[in-house]
Every structure is written in structure tokens, then in C-alpha cells.
Fold TIGR01906 family membrane protein.
Amino acid sequence: MKYLHRLAGIAAAFCIMIVLFITSVEAVVYWTPGYFEKEYTKYNVLDSLPAMTMDDLLHVTDEMMDYLRGDREDLHVETTMGGQQREFFNEREIAHMEDVQVLFLKAMSIRTVCLVLTVLLLAFMAATKARMRKVLPPSLCMGTGLFFGLITALGLIISTDFSRYFIMFHHIFFTNDLWILDPSTDMLINIVPEGFFMDTAARIALLFGSLSLILFGICLFLTIKNQKKAA
């Protein structure tokens, strides 16, 4: 039973790490004040759009982000461009963003499942009389370390050629070529250039890494403390 308890603790750690990773993504793109405006300014996004103001672009962005998490029914967003009222996204972009929304909502569902699994695993350990103080901290340490090591290795591989792996990501997660957009007709690719995705990935990695180290540090502290008490 001891090894089963340890395995449950490691599995719980993996679930917690998945929750932290998905939450890090959400925190960067939804909870960081002025993030999109800073990125748009950094990459001179307005220069590639026909006479559009930053306020109008931020409004379109807010509507797009609301759509991704299901707070808006469609992506038919009216705005002013070149002195004329028009829809910002064309049909191809809307179709692609429908696919993106599916991925985003699935990620949110995975986070919920992981939270539930974590509770169930901890409840199982408690119900089977696991020595929580002795077993849980080192198990969480091990699981956190393993997961973080895998993610770090993957991140290092991706950093060697971001463009290549960015394209590979789209081939894996999308079953069509709607993600291949034309800057002359599709506004979406103009407002989120590759540099935007690189900056976003770096911010997510920094936040996730910080949260992971905090979790690992707490578990390590408790592990060492319990070992000293037992000595």
C-alpha cells in the first residue's frame, strides 16, 4: 500500500502541474493588465492595419478573447477601419478561431478534470490511512520534479527553432489549413505576429516555472522537516 500511496501522490503532482500550466496560459493572456496593448505597440501592429485606432483594436481583441472562453457566441465583430465600418475578421479567420476556441475550451475542461482527480487521489490516500505528512510531500516533490523536467526539456527543444515547432504545433492540433493566413487579406495574422507568440510563450514559461519552483520548494521544505522529526 505504501507504494500505491506514493504513486497516487506522484499522480496528484502531475495533475497539479497541468493545472498550473493551463492557469499560467490563462493568466498571461487574460489577467496581465495592458498586455495586448504593449505587444501591439512593440511590434507596430497598427502600421499593418488600414487606419485603425488602438482603442478599436483593443475592443476587437477583447471580443476575440471573450469568444475563446465561450463568453461570446460568434466572432462577427464590427469595427472602423480605413474610415469605414466593417467586420474585422473574414470567414476564413472566423473558421480558424472556431478551431482555436475548441482547443481552449478543452484545455479548461482538462484543468477541471485534473482538479477533480487531485481531490480524489488525496481522498483515496486519506481513506486508505496513508501517512500523509510522511508520504505526500516527497511524492509531490518527485512528481513536480519529473513533470517540470519534461516540460523544461520540451521548452529547450522548441527554443532551438521556434518557427519550426510553431508550425508543427498547428499540424498536430488542427486538421485543416485554415491557420495558414495571408497578411494582405487576413487581419488576424497582422495583429499577432510570430514575435507576439514568442513573447507570450516566454511569459508563460516564466510564470509556470516560478509557480512550479514554489510548489517544489514547499514540498521539499516539508519533506526535510518531517525527516528531521523522524530522526
